[in-house]
Write a structure and sequence with these properties.
- This protein is α/β, with parallel strands linked by helices.
- Helices cover 17% and strands 26% of the residues.
- Strands 1-4-7-10-13-16-19-22-25-27-28 form an 11-stranded mixed sheet. It has a 9-stranded parallel sheet with strand order 2-5-8-11-14-17-20-23-26, with no helix packed on it. An 8-stranded parallel sheet has the order 3-6-9-12-15-18-21-24, with no helix packed on it.
- A hairpin with a 4-residue loop joins strand 27 and strand 28.
- The longest helix is centred in the C-terminal third of the chain and has 15 residues.
- The N and C termini lie far apart (48 Å).
């Protein structure tokens, strides 16, 4: 790959580091102490804030704001960071803020994610890999989103919430509790509706694995028996699958947390 193509109207502050094969479009701004990996393209009018570390093959679309100061009243200009992995697509007007010292100083975004137009990822969030956030989805501070979750349009997620792996959050949903892995959650108030069978099939899960999750869902969410007793029975079963075990562990952690959020203790 060749050198980085920087448009004559773009502004790149030293000592920003741009690896080969990338592109910086018209009127884009790359602020100080920023590292951008090979083959990453920054679109017209986009702003990459200070202390941002971005990997290879990302595409930042026009007018996105990546790595700006956290929107937190206690922030006083401390050196905090945003770390983004490889091959993410960050669409128009997306905002991703750096971390705060109330967290560990970092906001982190993994690999292969799609953040559609006008999404917001607040300070101290942790995003895994291959996540889809549809238009106008909003994450408050300290939210964790696990791999291959889908958050649909205009959903809003409260701080310290965890969105489980391969879960599906419906559009316009207000999330104030942790979202269990493999489940569909939607409504206001939000509720677990059913197993995310479409997402599981698309990711190669067998019908036997899906059936086990459906049976676990029926027992956990359709029974009026104490949840702890049901989880004990599931975990003690000879037919326990790794997916049901993961679901059970997630729910145990939620029970030990506060207000339905395992990370808010």
């Amino acid at each position: 790959m060749g050198a980085v193509e920087v448009h004559t109207t773009a502004v790149v502050h030293p000592p920003a580091e741009l690896d080969c094969g990338g592109e910086v479009g018209p009127y884009a701004v790359i602020q100080e102490n920023t590292t951008i990996g090979a083959g990453t393209r920054v679109g017209p009018g986009a702003v990459i804030g200070p202390n941002t570390r971005m990997g290879e093959g990302n595409v930042v679309y026009p007018n996105a704001s990546i790595g700006a100061d956290p929107q937190d009243l206690t922030y006083q200009g401390e050196a905090t960071f945003l770390v983004i992995g490889d091959h993410n697509r960050i669409r128009e007007f997306v905002t991703v803020n750096r971390g705060t010292q109330k967290g560990d100083g970092f906001t982190r975004v993994g690999n292969g994610n799609l953040l559609m137009a006008c999404c917001h990822v607040a300070h101290d969030c942790l995003l895994g890999d291959h996540i889809v956030m549809a238009n106008n989805a909003l994450l408050a501070g300290h939210v964790t989103v696990e791999d291959r979750a889908i958050i649909n349009g205009a959903a809003a997620v409260q701080q310290f919430t965890t969105i489980g792996r391969l879960s599906y959050v419906g559009g316009l949903t207000r999330i104030v509790h942790d979202v269990p892995p493999f489940m569909i959650v939607e409504g206001n108030p939000s509720k677990v509706r059913k197993v995310n069978t479409v997402g599981l099939r698309r990711n190669g899960y067998t019908e036997e694995q899906i059936s086990a999750l459906r049976e676990a869902h029926r027992r956990i969410y359709r029974s009026r028996r104490p949840r702890a007793q049901i989880l004990d029975e599931l975990e003690g079963s000879e037919d326990l699958t790794p997916e049901v075990a993961e679901l059970s562990r997630f729910l145990r952690k939620v029970e030990r947390g506060a207000r339905g959020r395992s990370r808010e203790v």
